[in-house]
Amino acid sequence: MDGIVDEEWSAFLRDWDAGGDQEVALAEMVTAEPDRHDWRVVDAALDRLVCSGCGDRLSRGPVDCSACDLAHGFRYAAIETDRPGVPPGNEHAVRVNVSVVRRPQGNSENEVLVRRLVLPVLLVGLLPTTEEAQRVSALIKRSSPAQKPVLIEQAIEEMLRR
């Protein structure tokens, strides 16, 4: 999953003709103006900066780190463009799922589990309907911990058959 972010960052570095010694300065520039860059570039830039509050990668620290919370929120100011050949909204779904999986501490275990298991489906260009998403959510809420992964996988298989 980090690969989809890192690939975009590598391309960004090539476009800017920037070397490794310029990476932190470029990351600082990107995070200062997230609304001018693709969300994948912004996420990658955040990964290259250290939080002054908690010492973790910026935006990935504990929920009570105000600097990480602020950076996490700013990531949603970035540009989001649907990839060719996917339904409208797929890129947004990819972005949200990646965000949850990369910073799980701000979400319930159920949410992280569903987002992690659905992400590959999104990456191949599928997009669950609202009804499918609500059905999976209801299944998860009323299932035992052991049943949850199996039920999610079954729901994903059903989505793939449609």
Annotate the secondary structure layout.
Layout: H1 2-15, H2 23-32, H3 39-47, H4 66-74, H5 90-102, H6 109-123, H7 130-141, H8 148-161
Helix pairs in contact: 1-3, 2-3, 5-6, 6-8, 7-8
Order of helices and strands: HHHHHHHH
Q: What is the general shape?
A: globular
Q: Which structural class should the secondary elements be placed in?
A: mainly alpha
Mean pLDDT: 90
Distance between the termini: 25 Å
Write down how many β-strands occur, each being a DSSP E stretch of 2 or more residues. Answer: 0
The helix count comes to 8
- Pick out the low-confidence regions: none
Q: Largest sheet at a glance?
A: none
- What Rg, in angstroms, do the CA atoms define? 17 Å
Which percent range fits the helix content?
55-70%
Give the amount of beta strand, in percent. under 5%
Can you walk me through this structure?
- With 162 residues, the protein is mainly alpha-helical.
- It has a domain at 1-79.
- Helices cover 59% and strands 0% of the residues.
- The protein has 8 helices and no strands.
- It starts with a helix and ends with a helix.
- The mean pLDDT is 90.
Give structural attributes:
single chain, 162 residues, mainly alpha, 8 helices, 59% helix, globular
In short:
The chain has 162 residues and is mainly alpha-helical.
